[in-house]
Amino acid sequence: GAGVSQSPRYKVAKRGQDVALRCDPISGHVSLFWYQQALGQGPEFLTYFQNEAQLDKSGLPSDRFFAERPEGSVSTLKIQRTQQEDSAVYLCASSLFGGAHMNTEAFFGQGTRLTVV
Amino acid sequence: GESVGLHLPTLSVQEGDNSIINCAYSNSASDYFIWYKQESGKGPQFIIDIRSNMDKRQGQRVTVLLNKTVKHLSLQIAATQPGDSAVYFCAERGPAGYALNFGKGTSLLVTP
Predict the structure, then answer these.
(1) pLDDT digits (tens, 9 = 90+) for A49-99
(2) Which residue, among A24, A37, A49, A113, would best test binding to B if mutated, counting the most B CBs under 10 Å from its CB?
(3) CB A4 within 8 A of CB A92
(4) Taking CB atoms and an 8 Å limit, are A56 and B44 in contact across chains?
(5) Hey, where are the domains in chain B?
(6) Looking at the 3D structure of chain A, how many domains does it have?
(7) 3-state secondary structure of B109
(8) Which of A64, A106, B17, B63 sits 20 to 30 Å CA-CA off B76?
(9) C-alpha closest to that of B38 among A1, A108, A92, A29
(10) How far is Cα A77 from Cα A69, in angstroms, rounded to an integer?
(11) CATH classification of B4-92 is 3.20.20.70, yes or no?
């Protein structure tokens, strides 16, 4: 596709339910990022993949959060036993190159708005 | 901890005027900065970037200024248009070298 695609666009989950959020990055992009954006705030870094390797997961708020990118393309962010504080927009971004200090543009998807009730 | 922040949460300008959005950063080791525009219901959209070895960079109707002495970043938008109405974020490259650290954002409202 032409851009980063995320699905679903909206997800309502009951507290305690598991959810899976999908990201299709731009084809050929090495780097993939997940961010969490609370209402009225800037995006907060969650995790980073270079191809299939998860190089940084320091931003994941708890062990209920898990991300994978098994073939170095599509990525899934899974949240187990969702809590109300997990309600946010989850953004995925990809960039062409990988590695630290690479000044390459990160392209963002439209995000998945998760509401936990 | 060190962070990126914005001076003004909201900015209202008239169509045709120039807009200036400011950002302060505290990590002197930051070497790369980006401005993003985010419209309602959409993901952040890249506007312009600047490396720490530069003071100024110009794009189409936008200019980013970097003052490393006072750790200040600004985005100037010339001849602001209604389509420029959005939330603007500055972001800096974090210590790890790939994650972006975003500020809280400034909401720009362009009135006719």
Answers:
(1) 999 999 999 999 999 999 999 999 999 999 999 999 999 999 999 998 776
(2) A37
(3) yes
(4) no
(5) 4-92
(6) 1
(7) strand
(8) A106
(9) A108
(10) 9
(11) no
